[in-house]
Amino acid sequence: MTRTKYSLVIFDLDGTLADTHQLIFDSFNFIMLKYKSVKLSPQEIMAYFGPPEDVCIRNMLGKNVFETAWREYLEYYEKHLDETSLFPGIQEILVNLRSGGAKLAVFTGKGKETTSLTLDYHGIGNDFDIIVTGSGVQNHKPHPEGVELALRKLGVEATKAVVVGNSVSDYKASISAGTNFVAVTYDDLARNHFDTIQCQRAHTVTELSAALLDEKDLAA
């Protein structure tokens, strides 16, 4: 049996499990072009991040057009999910972690709708013991509320859990909650986020597997 190094693995979603950032940027710009006739850079869009997408869109456009714009955002996002993919090897990691007895969680800043759409489209929606979204917490990353919620619901001590993420906000949430942390840098946007931070890094999905699993068992 595969042995895992942690009792609970808490994954971020965008840029960690799935390559979705371009679709997020395209979805925001679809709405911004329609309602504001402007196109934002990835950096400008990311400046709104923290709250889930629906809150970001309300802040961008105002409440008068929000309901229609949010529905159109979701329709565009779902229609173009075929342009996204799981990072190669992620599905195998989930299978190996599960077979080794680890509990699995997602903690993402995404809203509940886009989280469900993304996980279900890629066939991993039922692989997690708990899914915590930006819609389900009052305090968003880098606040540790989502990590602490997963720990509490699944009955795991912080020292026996690890957060896997691609952003400094993931790192801060993990450290504040007292868990271990692995930074993934195989996503282009995350490549330089951890240059000045002392933490374990996984530059490839293979390195992530080695960080979470006993590779001797996998090779046996």
Describe the structure in your own words:
The chain is 44% helix and 13% strand. The longest helix has 16 residues, at 21-36. Helix 1 (21-36) runs antiparallel to helix 4 (66-79). The model has no long low-confidence stretch (mean pLDDT 94). The protein is globular and about 55 Å long. The protein is an alpha/beta fold. The termini are close together. The protein has two domains: 8-19 and 85-219, Rossmann fold, CATH 3.40.50.1000; 21-82. The protein contains ten helices and eight strands. The strands form two sheets. Strands 5-4-1-6-7-8 form a six-stranded parallel β-sheet, sandwiched between helices. The protein has a two-stranded antiparallel sheet with strand order 2-3. Strand 4, helix 6 (112-121) and strand 5 form a beta-alpha-beta unit.
What distinguishing features does this structure have?
220 residues, alpha/beta, Rossmann fold, 2 domains, six-stranded parallel sheet, two-stranded antiparallel ribbon, 10 helices, globular
